[in-house]
Amino acid sequence: MFYTDGKLQYPVRVEKPNPIFARALQQAIGGVEGEIRVMMQYLFQGWGSRGPKKYRDMLINTGTEEIGHIEMLSTAVALNLEGAPLSMQEDVANDGIAGAVLGGMNLRHILSTGLAATPENCNGVPFNASHVYASGNIAADMYANVAAEATGRALAVRLYGMTDDPGMKDMLSFLIARDTMHQQQWLAVIEELGGNTEQLPIPNSFPQSEEANRFSYAYFGHRIDKQIPMGRWTEGASLDGKGKFEPMISEPLGGEPVLAPPRPDGGAQTEQVQGGMAVPPAANDPSLGGAPNVA
Amino acid sequence: MFYTDGKLQYPVRVEKPNPIFARALQQAIGGVEGEIRVMMQYLFQGWGSRGPKKYRDMLINTGTEEIGHIEMLSTAVALNLEGAPLSMQEDVANDGIAGAVLGGMNLRHILSTGLAATPENCNGVPFNASHVYASGNIAADMYANVAAEATGRALAVRLYGMTDDPGMKDMLSFLIARDTMHQQQWLAVIEELGGNTEQLPIPNSFPQSEEANRFSYAYFGHRIDKQIPMGRWTEGASLDGKGKFEPMISEPLGGEPVLAPPRPDGGAQTEQVQGGMAVPPAANDPSLGGAPNVA
Amino acid sequence: MFYTDGKLQYPVRVEKPNPIFARALQQAIGGVEGEIRVMMQYLFQGWGSRGPKKYRDMLINTGTEEIGHIEMLSTAVALNLEGAPLSMQEDVANDGIAGAVLGGMNLRHILSTGLAATPENCNGVPFNASHVYASGNIAADMYANVAAEATGRALAVRLYGMTDDPGMKDMLSFLIARDTMHQQQWLAVIEELGGNTEQLPIPNSFPQSEEANRFSYAYFGHRIDKQIPMGRWTEGASLDGKGKFEPMISEPLGGEPVLAPPRPDGGAQTEQVQGGMAVPPAANDPSLGGAPNVA
Amino acid sequence: MFYTDGKLQYPVRVEKPNPIFARALQQAIGGVEGEIRVMMQYLFQGWGSRGPKKYRDMLINTGTEEIGHIEMLSTAVALNLEGAPLSMQEDVANDGIAGAVLGGMNLRHILSTGLAATPENCNGVPFNASHVYASGNIAADMYANVAAEATGRALAVRLYGMTDDPGMKDMLSFLIARDTMHQQQWLAVIEELGGNTEQLPIPNSFPQSEEANRFSYAYFGHRIDKQIPMGRWTEGASLDGKGKFEPMISEPLGGEPVLAPPRPDGGAQTEQVQGGMAVPPAANDPSLGGAPNVA
Amino acid sequence: MFYTDGKLQYPVRVEKPNPIFARALQQAIGGVEGEIRVMMQYLFQGWGSRGPKKYRDMLINTGTEEIGHIEMLSTAVALNLEGAPLSMQEDVANDGIAGAVLGGMNLRHILSTGLAATPENCNGVPFNASHVYASGNIAADMYANVAAEATGRALAVRLYGMTDDPGMKDMLSFLIARDTMHQQQWLAVIEELGGNTEQLPIPNSFPQSEEANRFSYAYFGHRIDKQIPMGRWTEGASLDGKGKFEPMISEPLGGEPVLAPPRPDGGAQTEQVQGGMAVPPAANDPSLGGAPNVA
Amino acid sequence: MFYTDGKLQYPVRVEKPNPIFARALQQAIGGVEGEIRVMMQYLFQGWGSRGPKKYRDMLINTGTEEIGHIEMLSTAVALNLEGAPLSMQEDVANDGIAGAVLGGMNLRHILSTGLAATPENCNGVPFNASHVYASGNIAADMYANVAAEATGRALAVRLYGMTDDPGMKDMLSFLIARDTMHQQQWLAVIEELGGNTEQLPIPNSFPQSEEANRFSYAYFGHRIDKQIPMGRWTEGASLDGKGKFEPMISEPLGGEPVLAPPRPDGGAQTEQVQGGMAVPPAANDPSLGGAPNVA
Question: Which amino acids does the record list as binding Ca(2+) (chains A, B, C, D, E, F) (predicted)?
Answer without folding.
Answer: 57
